[in-house]
Amino acid sequence: MGFPYDEASWSVVDGAMYMGAGGAMPGLFTLIAAIICAAVLIFGQKTESAKTRQFDK
Questions:
Q1: Are 48 and 41 in contact (CB under 8 A)?
Q2: 13, 21 Cβ separation under 8 angstroms
Q3: CA 38, CA 28: separation in Å to the nearest integer?
Q4: Using CB atoms within 10 A as the burial measure, which of 5, 18, 32, 56 is most buried?
Q5: pTM of the prediction?
Q6: Are 26 and 20 in contact (CB under 8 A)?
Q7: What distance in Å separates the CA atoms of residue 44 and residue 25, rounded to the nearest whole number?
Q8: pLDDT digits over 14-46, tens only?
């Protein structure tokens, strides 16, 4: 993939410069990442409370 502009200057950039800009994919990937983060937090809380319950006895 080549450089999309004739001039190598920041002044010619007029919007987002990443693949998928303006489409549904950035939002979809953000949703997937949020679901993964929530799952990790839930799993971590579950295991940590189980470990704490062992020492409370």
A1: no
A2: no
A3: 15
A4: 5
A5: 0.58
A6: yes
A7: 28
A8: 777 776 677 778 888 889 999 999 999 999 999
DSSP for the chain, please give it: ---SSSS-SGGG--S--STTTTSSHHHHHHHHHHHHHHHHHHHHHHHHHHHHHHHH-
| Residue 41, pLDDT score | 98
Counting every residue written for the chain, the total comes to: 57
State how far the Cα of 46 lies from the Cα of 13, in Å rounded to an integer. 47
Which tokens sit at 56?
A: 């409370």
5 — alpha (psi -120 to 50), left (phi > 0) or beta?
beta
Kindly state the tokens that stand for 22. 């303006």
